[in-house]
Amino acid sequence: MSLPAHTKQTYTYADYLSWPKDERWEIIGGVAYNMTPAPSRRHQEISGALFNVLYNYLRDKSCKVYTAPFDVRLPEGNESDAEIKNVVQPDIVVVCDKAKLDDQGCKGAPDFIAEIISAHTARKDVREKFYLYEKAGVKEYWIVHPNDRTVLTFSLGTDGKYGIPEMFGPDDEIPVNVLPGLVIKLNDIFRE
């Protein structure tokens, strides 16, 4: 689908809902981003491994974990669903506040988001989504680099800003700050 850029400057969730269901899009600040090409095999392996660890840990707990495609709507204020200009599909999402969940996905900031970057998504994940997630109040944001097998983790400070990131390599273990007691071994995530 080619969006009629000449007819509209910004897009909303109402526009998003009208687009073909067989296409994946995100909207950040009203700007539409096409989610093609499809994720690589390696991306899928890492996403599946991380989801599996989180799912097994949360199985008997109140928080829920979801994997893309899963719509996360991030309102900037009290706008209606139709007016929301930020709709993303993070690779992995953990939501602990069930009031944020509905049949369309999540409305409001998840507690945890992990994005697995690729050449196609790196700039958006590192820049646009970083600032969007920080502003929305996502407590913990991981940027997973499949090629160099590293993870950057960001935690939201009391000032509402992400502090200096921590970097973890393939032999490290990462504590998930929003899920006390959970430590993820990166060798399990990056296993080939």
From TrEMBL:
Keywords: Endonuclease, Hydrolase, Nuclease. It holds the Pfam family Uma2. InterPro entries: Nuclease_put_TT1808, Restrct_endonuc-II-like, Uma2. One of its GO terms (molecular function) is endonuclease activity. Residues 14-185 form the Putative restriction endonuclease domain. This is Endonuclease, Uma2 family (Restriction endonuclease fold). It comes from Sporolituus thermophilus DSM 23256.
